[in-house]
């Protein structure tokens, strides 16, 4: 099947800018924005014109390359790296991608840095597509196993947008779904709307529709009830950061889905490219959780929905303990969401 690529990010052949799909305008308008500097890239990440862990990482990598195009000095490298790293705190792909570009260019003479950084950013973008495809094949096996045991169509619930829009192509949670759909396996996706920014309603529903995958939008609070009614066979989500012990940080509301899934014996997996694993953190308690603006909660559609002066807490992510998950789907295979499970698939990190 063709790559589910929604042109989330397109590097210019002249290597002087990247075109991004402005996700704040979806689903109503398909607007492209041009990023020509590291400041542009940081702004696009901060305002969530680009979002989703892998896409944030790739955008930052190109942002660093754009900074070096203007000034490849040590100082410029350090300043652009810091600027982009500060754009959003939770998805570890951001740090991973920036560090990868920095490691590549730091030993080089300044005239060679911009071009090498661009090459590295392009490699990151290309690898993301291949990684998600590989991860999708392993997730497809999970779906095939469940299909053999359940009535069809298979009912899959997902939260937020861990789709092609969150990546360079395929998505993570959606990669197995697209492959299964492409293989003719009957399935239906429950799309959790994902308050407050509605990534499920605005983005996942949009891209599933674009690819012809049957789906139904639900309010976030309906997920547990559907699971209790035996109307969900599988929960598939993405991740912004997975710690060494298999704890999964993902969009706020994921933990509640996991609690409901466990209570109702519904299998739940996080689809995780290895770029999302933070080998430096022992468990989820140390993941920085982004706190976003109160306006996202108070004024969701332009009209205030609570009395003036209402205090708001708006944590954007939560931690799902690995023990609540059936497993992690990675590009190297499926493993238990535990230290041992991850170490078996990624032995090079087992003792690091
Ligand atoms: O705040 P967002 O929209 O960037 O959050 C995105 C998510 O939580 C995704 O599930 C995660 O980044 C995985 S994307 C493949």
Task: List the main descriptive attributes of the protein structure presented here.
binds 5-S-methyl-1-O-phosphono-5-thio-D-ribulose; alpha/beta; Four Helix Bundle (Hemerythrin (Met), subunit A); single chain; 352 residues; 4-stranded mixed β-sheet; globular
Bound ligands: 5-S-methyl-1-O-phosphono-5-thio-D-ribulose
The CATH homologous superfamily name of the largest domain equals Translation initiation factor eif-2b, domain 2
CATH class of the largest domain: Alpha Beta
Work out the radius of gyration. Answer: 20 Å
Instruction: State mean pLDDT (0 to 100 scale).
Output: 96
- Helix count from the secondary structure assignment: 11
Distance between the termini: 38 Å
Strand content: 15-25%
Q: Total domains, how many?
A: 2
The CATH topology annotation of the largest domain reads as Rossmann fold
CATH architectural designation of the largest domain: 3-Layer(aba) Sandwich
Overall body shape? globular
Largest beta sheet: strand ordering:
6-5-4-7-10-13-14
- The topology string of helices and strands comes to EEEHHHHHEHEHEHEEEHEEHEEEH
Largest sheet: 7 strands, mixed
Strand tally is 14
| Weakly predicted, low-confidence segments | none
Task: Explain how this protein is built.
This protein is α/β, with parallel strands linked by helices and 352 residues long. It has 2 domains: 9-128, translation initiation factor eif-2b, domain 1 (Four Helix Bundle (Hemerythrin (Met), subunit A), Up-down Bundle); 134-349, Rossmann fold (3-Layer(aba) Sandwich), CATH 3.40.50. The chain has 11 helices and 14 strands. It has helices at residues 38-46, 53-70, 74-85, 93-105, 110-149, 174-182, 199-210, 222-228, 254-263, 295-298, 339-345; strands at 9-11, 18-21, 32-35, 154-159, 187-192, 215-218, 234-237, 241-243, 248-251, 268-271, 277-278, 317-320, 327-330, 333-335. The strands form 3 sheets. A 7-stranded mixed β-sheet has the order 6-5-4-7-10-13-14, with helices on both faces. Strand 1 (9-11) and strand 2 (18-21) form a beta hairpin. Helix 2 runs antiparallel to helix 5 and helix 3 (74-85) packs antiparallel against helix 4 (93-105). It starts with 8 loop residues before the first strand and ends in a 7-residue tail after the last helix. The model has no long low-confidence stretch (mean pLDDT 96). The structure holds 5-S-methyl-1-O-phosphono-5-thio-D-ribulose. 5-S-methyl-1-O-phosphono-5-thio-D-ribulose (MRU) is lined by residues 51-54, 91, 160, 162, 166-167, 171-172, 199, 238-240, 250-251, 316. 5-S-methyl-1-O-phosphono-5-thio-D-ribulose is lined by residues 51-54, 91, 160, 162, 166-167, 171-172, 199, 238-240, 250-251, 316.
